[in-house]
Write a structure and sequence with these properties.
There is one protein chain. By secondary structure, the chain is mainly beta. Helices cover about 5% and strands about 45% of the residues. Strands 2, 4, 5, 6, 10, 11 and 12 form a 7-stranded mixed β-sheet that branches. Strands 1, 3, 7, 8 and 9 form a 5-stranded antiparallel β-sheet that branches. The termini are far apart.
Length: about 130
């Protein structure tokens, strides 16, 4: 059974940094891609960043390019979301999600919600002074 657990959320001032962690357990060898999504109150869930397990290629939403990165520790089955220069509009619940290895790279790169089969419970990030 696959399990994804996020941690690292919290309150941070604008311009600050946070690092979220996603710990994966279970049949992680069946993963094709890992992604971070976020959902702000009253808004739809949106993709933030993804990484292909096959080739390590990383992808970012335009709104976070240059500010967020998605490093990973393969040995520990951990994927991170390093968030720098945070803005109030980054406030949301952040979710880690995994797609199976049958998912085409195109869908992993474009962070289509329907392409991701496993989800964590989410962690709150609040950017406010």
């Amino acid at each position: 059974q696959v399990r994804l657990v996020e941690s690292g959320g919290g309150l941070v001032q604008p311009g600050g940094s946070l690092r979220l962690s996603c710990a994966a357990s279970g049949f992680t060898s069946t993963f094709g891609g890992i992604a971070w999504f976020r959902q702000a109150p009253g808004k739809e869930r949106e993709g933030v960043s993804s990484i292909s397990v096959r080739d390590g290629k990383m992808h970012y939403a335009d709104s976070v390019k240059g500010r967020f990165t998605i490093p990973r520790d393969i040995a520990k089955n951990l994927v991170y979301l390093q968030m720098n220069s945070l803005k109030p509009e980054d406030t949301a619940v952040y979710y880690c999600a995994a797609a199976t290895d049958a998912t085409p790279n195109f869908f992993i790169a474009n962070m289509r919600i329907r392409s991701y089969d496993y989800w964590g419970q989410g962690t709150q990030v609040t950017v406010s002074s």
